[in-house]
Automatic annotation (TrEMBL):
Keywords: Aminoacyl-tRNA synthetase, ATP-binding, Cytoplasm, Ligase, Nucleotide-binding, Protein biosynthesis, RNA-binding. ATP binds at K235. It comes from Cephaloticoccus capnophilus. The keyword Signal does not apply. It holds the Pfam family tRNA-synt_1b. GO terms for cellular component: cytosol. Catalyzes the attachment of tyrosine to tRNA(Tyr) in a two-step reaction: tyrosine is first activated by ATP to form Tyr-AMP and then transferred to the acceptor end of tRNA(Tyr). L-tyrosine binds at Y35, Y172, Q176. Transmembrane segments: none annotated. A motif ('KMSKS' region) lies at residues 232-236. Homodimer. The gene is tyrS. This is Tyrosine--tRNA ligase.
Length: 436
């Protein structure tokens, strides 16, 4: 498949200003320069931003020249698209911090060292900040009809809503149009890509380029990713799934994708991975034949986590995931262990009880706390008698190691990372005891 056919097959085309003309341009021997913008409204991008980065990368792999734009200027205004209320304006210092963080994340997915078509980072503050307000109105604003601006979906929906729209956000499409015009003029950038909610902003840019330069330019949008119920993709009970490993750990990132709903996993394989059509269709067939094997889910989680966090992070996430299926604890980090057991009931326990002398029942002194008492304390067993039976029956595990001696005492030597005990009853009943 050529690039456009591949993007269509992956479901990455929502709208294009002139698809036939763009296809003809891409079929020529000259590579095209394209850009996608990322406004630094926070200090990390999230998984919803992956579409833009991955689509830039697909063009780069096809030999084209990608520009990733960090919106140091537009981020100060805020895009009204998809928002029901005005954004909070950021201070210059906060914005500069966010831009620096986002630039580092963009460098993870794009090849900035390619000898033939390296990706480039640009910041629209560089060319927007020097322009005076009057110059902007004369050189840019005069080319826009107020009627056309109001007709844009992102503006009209806000005007009809409860909160309205400020002049600041109303002017956002002029700033983005000027970005495209500037990049067309200075970097020979002929194509802007973005989510379908950016269609109005992108076409404002192609119109400005036509009026001021008289040269061709195209806009391409990909569909916004949603869950089966229509809600926004990338949100969990704990909030957004971030690309920054300090905000969303690689383990939790991996878990987000491996827990993809069955109805969406094949779609996400096409959109979020660089697996070939043959590989994806093989996974789709396996998923249709036996969804319980979760081959498609594992491939999706592995591929996306590798792209964002690297192969080592994937290996650690897979090892960590196996812990709740009885695998050995191994050499995972304490932070990863905390992620793994984060949804398991955690019960505090006095560390001194694992160090103190206790009566074993036959007049001899032993060190530590009886495992039987810990099973009751954790709630895994309703009584000491039941705990004794469960241990004797081979159904109790300490740190994923089966314990068969009812007289087993637990000491500080058993603590994971000096503070945790992982108890399991049967195959799926877990509890964590954390000493204080």
């Amino acid at each position: 498949m050529n690039l456009i056919e591949d993007l269509k097959w992956r479901g990455l085309l929502a709208d294009c200003t002139d698809l036939d003309a763009l296809a003809e341009r891409l079929a020529s021997e000259r590579p095209i320069t394209l850009y996608c913008g990322f406004d630094p409204t926070g200090d990390s991008l999230h998984v919803g931003h992956l579409m833009g980065q991955l689509t830039l990368r697909r063009f780069q792999l096809a030999g084209h020249h990608p520009l990733a734009l960090a919106g140091g200027a537009t981020g100060m205004v805020g895009d009204p698209s998809g928002k029901s209320a005005e954004r909070n304006l950021l201070s210059p210092d906060a914005l500069a911090h966010n831009v620096a963080c986002i630039k580092a994340q963009l460098a993870r997915l794009l090849d900035f060292d390619s000898p033939t078509n390296p990706a480039r980072l640009v910041d629209n503050a560089a060319w927007t900040a020097p322009i005076s307000f009057l110059d902007f109105l004369r050189d840019v604003g005069k080319h826009f009809s107020l009627n056309a601006m109001i007709a844009k979906d992102s503006v009209r929906s806000r005007m009809e809503g409860d909160h309205g729209i400020s002049y600041t956000e109303f002017s956002y499409q002029l700033l983005q149009a000027h970005d495209f015009y500037h990049l067309r003029k200075t970097h020979n950038c002929e194509l802007q890509i973005g989510g379908s909610d950016q269609w109005g902003n992108i076409t404002a840019g192609t119109d400005l380029i036509r009026k001021k330069l008289g040269t061709p330019a195209w806009g391409w949008t990909f569909p916004l990713i949603t869950k089966s119920d229509g809600t926004k993709f990338g949100k969990t009970a704990g909030g957004a799934v971030w690309l920054d490993p300090q905000k969303t750990s690689p383990y939790k990132f991996y878990q987000f994708f491996i827990n993809t709903e069955d109805a969406k996993v094949c779609e996400y394989l096409r959109k979020f991975t660089f697996l070939s059509r043959a590989q994806i269709e093989s996974l789709e067939a396996a998923h249709a034949a036996n969804p319980g094997a979760r081959e498609a889910h594992k491939a999706l989680a592995r591929e996306v986590t590798t792209l964002v966090h690297g192969a080592d992070a994937v290996d650690a996430a897979i090892k960590a995931s196996a812990i709740l299926f009885g695998a050995e604890i191994g050499d995972i980090s304490e932070a990863t262990f905390r992620d793994v057991v984060g949804e398991i009931p955690t019960i505090p326990f006095a560390k001194t009880a694992l160090e103190a002398q206790s009566d074993s029942g036959n007049g001899e002194a032993t060190v530590g706390a009886p495992l039987i008492e810990l099973l009751v304390h954790s709630g895994l067993c309703p009584s000491k008698g039941q705990a004794r039976k469960d241990i004797s029956g081979g159904g109790i595990y300490l740190n994923n190691v089966r314990e068969t001696a009812p007289t087993r005492s637990v000491t500080t030597a058993d603590l994971l990372f000096g503070k945790h005990l992982l108890l399991r009853k049967g195959k799926r009943s877990y509890a964590v005891i954390t000493v204080e």
